[in-house]
Structures are given as structure tokens and as C-alpha cells.
């Protein structure tokens, strides 16, 4: 619906539509209805494919022709993804455009799609060529494509050198501000440190579940969490040792952290983390709440 609204607004200030263009917009509406309303993804893709073939009859200089083409491709990509035919997406898009001429919005969709299915390498070459095309550096979505390529392709694939070159080179100068470039370099360096950290338990098996939750990352989180909890505790002591409301806030912060972390206690890699975390909480609990309960007991003469 947002695509249809955008096209309608642009067309309101454009010359009257020809009969062929009107038919193309009707075809695009049909494809959107098949996709969103009827959930008939194959029919939606077939309609988009026919629409793209019929666009050859329109004047290629008409800006609406480019908008229609992009609209058909957007719906076609979504339909292929829903049909679990994502492997055909890039090839199909390249049948419609020269590699350097793919619209930025389509490049963004393709990068996100291939990253979502765990195959970022499928977009590496196409995105690299697109980003290094000088004409694309002036495209409205150039910065977003560069960011997605960095975060969803290069970093997951461990392409550290290319990532640094992208950030500090011509692409980075065109896509990012100085602050954004520094942030991007920090992300790359942090990822590199994580991959270089030795595991805490070399004997641990290399199962897929453990790979998704590396022990080295757990160890880093332990130290960060300890520092955070001790910092909060010191601040609460300075604010007033007898403030029970502050202690409740402290517990709320701890619980919130655990909810956001979403740790799976069934994983072997979590055992050490849980044990140390519980020890830390026990120490904090005794130090913070023992004086409170002692004062309550004394006031009641128990």
C-alpha cells in the first residue's frame, strides 16, 4: 500500500498516463493484491514477471517506467522469498538490471534477504561492484547499502581487511560521516577481538548450539556484568544505605538484564556463567539486604 501511495503522489504532478502506463499500474495493483490479500505468492511473482516484460512497450525516458520496474521487482523479491526460492532472487534481479544500475532499495532488500537466510556471501560480489560504481555514490540510499554490506556481509564473513578498506576508502568517505566511520571501525575491531579470544574450556565439544553461544563471549559478559553491578552497588551506597527503594531498583535492573540477555540455562556453555553470576548476586544480596533485615529484627525486639 505504501508503494502504491508513493507512486500515486508522484504521478499526480506528472503528465497524464497513457493507456499502456495505466494498464501497468493496474497490473502492479493486481500483484500487490495477490501478495498481501490472497497470499498467492506464485501468482504474484508471475504477475510481476509479466509486468516487467510488458514495460518494454513504455517510453524508457518516462520516470514512471523506472518506478514501475522497481515496484514489480520489490514485489517479485518478496514473492520469491515467501516461496523459499531466495537463491533465485539475485539472478532474477540481474535479468532486469545491469549490476551497477540496480536501484539502492533493491540492493538493500537483497542484502537483508541473503543475510536472513544465512548466506551473506551470495551478495558479496554484487554489492562490492555496486558500491564501487561512481554513479551510485550519489544515490539516495548509497549510505544504507554501504552500512548493510558492512554489517550483514563483511563482518559476518570475517572480511576484516575489506571492511576497514570500505570504511576508510572512497566508499566510506561518501557513505559515512567521520563519527560513523570511527564507530564502524570500532565494530570491526570488537568483532575481531571476539574471534581471537581463546575459549575458556578447550575440551568443550564444537556442537552447533555451543558455537552460537561461544564461551569467550560469556567470559567477557561476566566481567562486564560484574563491573556494572559493583558500580551500581557503590552508587546506591553513596545515595544512602538505608534506602529500601533503591535496593528494589537494583533488583529490577538485575532482572531486566537477565530478561534482555535471554540466556538459555540448558546450554553447557552457560553453566559457568550461571554459577559465577549467582555467587556475585549472593554477595550483593548479603551486603545490601542483611543490614536492612537486621534493623527490622531489632526494631521488633526479635
Automatic annotation (TrEMBL):
Organism placement in taxonomy: Eukaryota, Metazoa, Chordata, Craniata, Vertebrata
InterPro entries named in the record: Pex26
Provenance organism: Amphilophus citrinellus
Record-level Gene Ontology MF annotations: ATPase binding; protein-containing complex binding
Protein name: Peroxisomal biogenesis factor 26
One CC-aspect GO term: peroxisomal membrane
Annotated GO biological process: protein import into peroxisome matrix; protein import into peroxisome membrane
Residue spans of biased composition, Polar residues class: 204-214
Keywords: Membrane, Transmembrane, Transmembrane helix
Chain segments annotated as transmembrane: 244-263
Span list, region Disordered: 187-214
Pfam families according to UniProt: Pex26 (PF07163)
